[in-house]
Amino acid sequence: MLCGKPVLTHTIEKFSCVSEKIILVLNPSFIDYWEKICFDFAFTTPHTIIEGGKTRTDSVKNGLAVIKDDGIVAIHDAVRPLVSRKLIEKLFDMAEKKGNAVPTVVVKDSLRKIEKEKNYSVDRKDYMAVQTPQCFRIDKLKAAYNDITAKEFTDDASVFEEMGEKINLVEGESFNIKITEAHDLKIAEALFMIQNVNG
User: Fold this and answer.
1) DSSP letters of 91-127?
2) Which residues contact residue 157 at a Cβ distance below 8 angstroms, ignoring those fewer than 6 apart?
3) Per-residue pLDDT of the chain (199 residues; tens, 9 = 90+)
4) Phi-psi region at 127: left, alpha or beta (left = phi > 0; alpha = psi -120 to 50)
5) Dihedral through CA 139, CA 24, CA 1, CA 42, nearest 10?
């Protein structure tokens, strides 16, 4: 729950005014639970539910498989409900012009690289933290996912890049946090209140 509503409802609503179609890829065991949430909270924002796979890669493939049109697809983490409509639109625009768009933010912490039993400092100016949504031409992203090997990927830009494609970076948002731990909800609640006050 985030400010009285399930996190996922916030996330879907952010895309409802920007995207023509919303596809929700869920672990099969969560689908009944999600449908109950929709009923309990009178959540009627149109979306299509697709069963996810065993891995993130399988889930993305399942989602892409039901898209029959050309255009741009945005793939987003359900647990990033604070993404702004402005950023979503900026990413879609960049992807329309250049084929893809990936949001990133500067790294504020010092970094150390670990190699076996050693570790050493690296310059944080050489690194960016990657966010979602990540936007791509549908045909090219489908081709990238159909061409990948058994290698593990943590995001779609990495899959796209494997085809030799250049990734276009767009300035992301510090508010666009990923809720992964219990205390992240407290941070998200505070940011949500600030976001609503500031528009």
Assistant:
1) HHHHHHHHSEEEEEEE--S-EEEEETTEEEEE-GGG-
2) 100, 102, 130, 134, 167
3) 999 999 999 999 999 989 989 999 999 999 999 999 999 999 999 999 999 999 899 999 999 999 998 999 999 999 999 999 999 999 999 999 999 999 999 999 999 999 999 999 999 999 999 999 999 999 999 999 988 875 678 899 999 998 899 999 999 999 999 999 999 999 999 999 888 766 5
4) beta
5) 130
pTM exceeding 0.85: yes
> Cis omega before residue 133 (within 30°)?
yes
Structure tokens at 43: 């959540």
- Burial group, residue 32, by CB count within 10 angstroms (0-12, 13-18, 19+): exposed
DSSP class of 180: -
HSE at residue 39, side-chain half, CA atoms within 13 A, is 6
- Tally the residues of the chain: 199
Q: How crowded is the C-beta side of 60, counted as CA atoms within 13 Å?
A: 26
- Cβ(130)–Cβ(102) below 8 Å: yes
Q: What 3-state class would DSSP assign to 131?
A: coil
Phi, psi of 30 (to 5 degrees): -95, -10
Domains of the chain by start residue, with CATH:
7-198 (3.90.550.10)
